[in-house]
Amino acid sequence: MTFAVELADASGRVLLVSLPCSRPDPWWRERTTAIRPALVTVRIPLDRGWDPRQTGSAFNLKLTDGDLTNVMNGPPTYDVPFMRR
C-alpha cells in the first residue's frame, strides 16, 4: 500500500510512503493494515532526506516491518482476511 503526504499550507515535494502490506480490502487476500496517525509520522522521512518545502519530484520512502515496529513501539498488527473464521 502506498500513500502520499504533503504540506497543507505550502507546495513542495510530495512524500510517497510504501508499506509492506495491502490496503484493507477483505477480497485482496493479503495482509492488510489501516493507516493510523502513528504511521503518518514524518520523523523517518526527514531523517532520510525528505524536505517537504523543497521542489522536485516525489520522495519515495519504502518502509519495512522493522521501520513500522520502531514507529509503532512494537510489531505492526496485520489483518489477514483469508484467515478469518
DSSP strand count: 3
Proportion of residues in β-strands: 5-15%
State the end-to-end CA separation: 24 Å
Largest sheet: 3 strands, mixed
Q: How many discrete structural domains?
A: 1
Q: What Rg do the Cα atoms give? A: 14 Å
Number of helices: 2
Give, in order, the helices and strands: EEHEH
Mean pLDDT score: 78
Stretches with pLDDT under 50, minimum 5 residues: none
Which of globular, elongated, flat, extended, rod-shaped describes the shape? globular
- In terms of structural class, how would the helical and strand content be classed? alpha+beta
**Order of strands in the sheet with most strands:** 1-2-3
- Quaternary assembly: single chain
Q: What is the helix fraction of residues, given as a range? A: 10-25%
What does this entry look like structurally?
By secondary structure, the protein is α+β, with helices and mostly antiparallel strands. It has one domain. The chain is built from 2 helices and 3 strands, in the order ββαβα. A 3-stranded mixed β-sheet has the order 1-2-3, with no helix packed on it. It is globular.
Helix and strand layout, with pairings?
Blueprint: E1 2-5, E2 15-18, H1 43-47, E3 59-62, H2 65-71
Parallel strand pairs: 2-3
Antiparallel strand pairs: 1-2
